[in-house]
Amino acid sequence: MIDDVRQAREAGLARVAAATSSDELRSVDAEVLGKKGPLSGLKTRLGGSPVEERKTVGQAINEAITAVQAALDARSAALGAEQTAARIAAERLDLTEVVGRQRRGHPHLSTQAWERLEDVFVGLGFQVAEGPEVETDFYNFEALNMPRSHPARSGFDTLFTDYHDDGTVLLRTHTSPVQIRVMQQIAPPIYMVMPGKVFRRDTPDATHMPVFHQIEGLVVDRNITMAHLAGTIDAFTKAFFGSGFSSRLRPNYFPFTEPSAEFDIRRPDGTWIELGGCGMVHPNVLRAGGLDPEVWSGFAFGFGIDRMARERHGVDDLRDMFSNDIRFIEQF
Ligand code: PHE
Asked: Across-strand partners of 266?
């Protein structure tokens, strides 16, 4: 009988060694060590043997089981490692190939417009500042001459955070709150542009996105007039679009500027693009910024950056710019 045990043991070990997958190992486990396997059968047969044989052969059977089990565990670990190595090899990305094909990243077309706008204004003598995207009611509205009950507030479709129950913490609806922060932090003369992300509760369509980018301009100095505003807008227009372009102001209303205007850009072919809003900084806004309106005067403007990128590249649908489809993005 001891020979049968040895044979069963050798056969079991050979099957374990020959297994080439975890699945195969599992069936070897069941067939060799299971209740209907050869070693179990030998155990049953041993029941009728003399005591002495039961002892030695029983021990041999147990050793055989332990040996096959150990071989199974070792083989299973080895196969697992092989499979992991194979999966990693299959999932490997050849980054050298990507570089070889010159698929380098580049700034998004909206970022390109943002950076070019900064360059143009820096060239005109402006500095650049940024403010927070999450704002308080005070900076976004109150300090900009829009007290609680002001009807112009409803035109902004504000997104509020639930940080305070009373709706005083919000996502800024325009970059104008940065005007106040700049006036509070630096003394005039101020020649500043303030680009950034703004948010409005809008359904995305070809010309609107709930998240978009604006650039704000603020000048505060002595004896600033509307002529400085018009001249600055025109200088900017020619620097950004080219000398064939010009600009005009049309009367409009904003609570934070007085007088206020809309400004348009004239293309060389005589057609017009509506660009943004502007005006002379309202005395209440200067006061909110800590400045004396008897001493200081200024102008401000604000317009959409994404619209500039759209105009420059002839993009039909704003949504394409932000869907991050690489086939679209790569064109610019
Ligand atoms: N903040 C205004 C808007 O988002 C634009 C503006 C800025 C108008 C500065 C006047 C002065 O529509």
From this structure: 246, 272
In a domain, 97, yes or no: no
Domain that holds residue 87: 2-91
CB-ligand 1 contact for 277 (6 Å cutoff): yes
Spatial CA neighbour of 216 closest among 121, 145, 313: 121
User: Is the minimum distance from the CB of 298 to ligand 1 under 6 angstroms?
Assistant: no
**Eight-class DSSP state of 205:** B
Number of domains in the chain: 2
Angle, vertex CA 130, rays to CA 124 and CA 133, nearest 5: 145
Of ligand 1's listed atoms, the one at least distance from the Cα of 176 is 1
Question: In angstroms, what is the span from residue 175 Cα to ligand 1's centroid?
Answer: 8
Same domain, 162 and 303: yes
Q: What is the pLDDT of residues 183-195, one digit of tens each?
A: 999 999 999 999 9
Q: pTM value?
A: 0.70
Q: Is the pLDDT of residue 95 over 80?
A: no
Residue 297: give its domain's CATH number: 3.30.930.10
